[in-house]
């Protein structure tokens, strides 16, 4: 199969020339001290984000390179890391597991399950994210500002594909005014929030959580373009972005049964004793909690992130969950990405990991759940062949083209968490 060279890597392409121009313009008058203030995490973000010169991925751990069955996917995408970039170890296979699990001794609690999601399940989860999940009653980043179609934005986009006269205008919630500047839909805001715990969650739940005001400066937009502004959709307990706390007063959104099964089977596939051996002191009162995760892990919240190729997710810690150690299961679909994970501050040098479609990553335990992490780059043109219509049989290809067209420039990340210990009923 022919390689696809992303435009950004082709010196003759317009986007390469534009990135080069922008680079020379931006660096012309830069003081020599420009980079000195950056924390190691910030420096790594800048390095991997760069469009010119393009980043060298030889220090990025790319476990797909260990698997012959992924050769075509890796070669088609051009971008590749290295299987030896970071010291990792393979965990013993559990009886129920059919794909390998790896852990990184320098990051206790971080487990990578490459290709854990089958190719068919990847297609199902991508469809679920768009058609079933990113719509009412689940909140998305667009709900604050737009009156979204009742059947969901994706349904409107599908109708518009068949007949462009059906591409509806989606209206803003606020009346248009030119003089007020309020936040527009865009990247997630960074707020330094208090870490939640069983002791303070009731006090935190009393913090006022006013709804964010709709922007008065945005205009009606066609559904087919608004789709590319979709950045997240909430799962389970509602999250309040202004305070970065869960808003328990809204009740709990339903957790999709199939998604729950995938997360539970990922947690069950890991030999946690092997992962956490020797870390007992760090767990304090929690003791060897991981020993009972087979019975107590219960996802109840999360987010589906939708990234376009220029989107990034800045370094952050997910500390709003009352369970501060329980596994956070992260599923990657579509284009690949560089994921950075560091330590308890931005001053530790982060480990770069290449996450590809179908990979599951689990962050768990007292240090890993409090580690800074982020996504500085979505890797262009890395949509694997099994998410392209050309590779599908007759039965599967009929409605896939719309998904392929969207996924060509997209990465989806389903990020599932456990806010409360199993069986715990919060009193509001
Ligand atoms: O996209 C990813 O892989 C990570 C997303 C993430 O860290 C988050 O949603 O908090
Ligand atoms: Fe996160």
From TrEMBL:
Top-level taxon of the source organism: Eukaryota
Cofactor note: Binds 1 Fe(2+) ion per subunit.
Binding-site positions, Fe cation: 316, 318, 373
InterPro entries assigned: Alkb, AlkB-like, AlkB-like_sf, Oxoglu/Fe-dep_dioxygenase_dom
Annotated keywords: Dioxygenase, Iron, Metal-binding, Oxidoreductase
UniProt xrefs under SUPFAM superfamilies: Clavaminate synthase-like
Cofactor: Fe(2+)
Any one cellular-component term (Gene Ontology): cytoplasm
Plastid found in the keyword field: no
PROSITE patterns: FE2OG_OXY (PS51471)
Span of domain Fe2OG dioxygenase: 298-420
Pfam families cross-referenced by the UniProt entry: 2OG-FeII_Oxy_2
GO molecular function: dioxygenase activity; metal ion binding
Keyword Iron part of the UniProt annotation: yes
Protein name: Fe2OG dioxygenase domain-containing protein
Phylogenetic placement of the source organism: Eukaryota, Fungi, Dikarya, Basidiomycota, Agaricomycotina
